[in-house]
Amino acid sequence: MAFKNIFNDWYARDTSKKIRAVFKAKGQSGKHLSNPIYGYKHSDTDKNLWVIDEEAAEVVRKIFRLSIDGYGPAQIARILTEQGIPTPTAYALSQDRDNGHKNANLNRWGIETISGILEKPEYAGHTVNFRTHVKSYKNKKRVDNPKEDWLIFENTHEAIIPQQEFDLVQELRKNKRRPTKHEEVNPFSGICYCADCGRKMYLCRATSLTADQEHLKCGTYAKDKNGCTIHFIRTIVLKEIILGELNKIISFVRENEDEFVQAAMDNSVRKQSSELAKTKKKLKDAEKRISDLDRLFTRLYEDNVSGKISGERFAMMSAGYEDEQKKLRATVAELTAYIDTSEQKSTDVTAFIKAVKKYEHISKLTPEIMHELIEKIVVHAPDKSSGHRTQEIEIYYRFDVAVTTAVADSMKYDKKRKAA
């Protein structure tokens, strides 16, 4: 019986190895290793191809639109639940499919479900393999693989979400945004920064404050009044400035597209050249240090052989050098990849122009407009030397196409409001 169990175990292990090899070969070829995710279904002609399931895909698009509008996963889940939209599991069951989540709540959308949908590159048309693995043929529990071990094959099926929109959502999700008690999404959330300390500026809004009194203030000052100056700016003033600058650039792009493209490309080349020079210097320093460590290894080994240092000392020092060299090699790989990409990549001015052309005139700021056209807004400390309060505002547009500077004059706005 003991020998029989050993042979059975060998057989199970051998079969597991063969199955793993087949799956690995399939995954490395760019074919999907899982069933279609929510929003997709198998093609009728090719079972390895995913095609868009239009009914579910429309819900996915709605989720991404809500995220761009400033809603978080919890808010999106609540909205979909209130609207009675079937959850992915409920929808799969209605289509006589099984998505593997038999114990899921069929009536309520979960926060994790929304977060998972927003993070999947598959919705941008890419195949992602080897997200997880099982420990062994004896332990079937799935373990997440680190992202660097994933294999991503681009443009393998039709995208539900355009790449630009998907990238925008990933960027927005880095900035956690809380819903306000007013149930309104702040259009400046996550993109306004203090010019002095670099921290984000936060919205100050309360039922006791009127719309004219709502303002943004430095995050550092909010926590430590000695860390920075308050230099707040009222949102109503900032909205007027941003609206004016956006409409200026929309008008300029429409009337002088070729000139705008050339100026944006020139700006990109200058910025890229400066960044590349710094990166190449870092790469050169890292490669030099790796060479120095190789020489230190050789000298250390010779000292150990000759008896100048003990084996214990040799092991400790060599381990430290090996760890440093491993980190340096990873850094070199990252820097090299960045340089290769930067030297081949040009500013995607076309994407910005396409986004701008969607609007003839902007009369109201929304989170979607802000995050689609603007990367960040930098607010400087107020200048009171002229007898009244003015502030410099820098607006950085997306894709590094342009930077504009405006001046917020609070007194000018106050006079305008009183006249009205």
Descriptive report:
This protein is of the alpha+beta class and 420 residues long. It folds into three domains: 29-173, Putative Large Serine Recombinase, Chain B, Domain 2 (Hect, E3 ligase catalytic domain fold); 192-257 and 353-419, no CATH class; 276-346. Strand 4 (132-134) and strand 5 (142-144) form a beta hairpin. The protein starts with a helix and ends with a helix. Strands 7-11-12-13 form a four-stranded mixed sheet. Strands 8-9-10 form a three-stranded antiparallel sheet. Strands 1-2 form a two-stranded antiparallel ribbon. It has helices at 2-28, 54-68, 73-82, 88-94, 111-119, 163-173, 219-223, 235-255, 257-306, 311-344, 349-356, 367-373, 410-419, and strands at residues 40-42, 50-52, 127-129, 132-134, 142-144, 151-153, 192-194, 201-204, 215-218, 233-234, 374-379, 390-397, 403-409. The chain has 13 helices and 13 strands.
Summarize, please.
With 420 residues, this protein is an alpha+beta fold. It has 13 helices and 13 strands. The protein has three domains: 29-173, Hect, E3 ligase catalytic domain fold, CATH 3.90.1750; 192-257 and 353-419, no CATH class; 276-346.
How many DSSP H or I helices?
Answer: 13
The CATH class of the largest domain: Alpha Beta
Instruction: Give, in order, the helices and strands.
Output: HEEHHHHEEEEHEEEHEHHHHHEEEH
Stretches where pLDDT falls below 50 for ≥5 residues? 415-420
| Second-tier CATH architecture of the largest domain | Alpha-Beta Complex
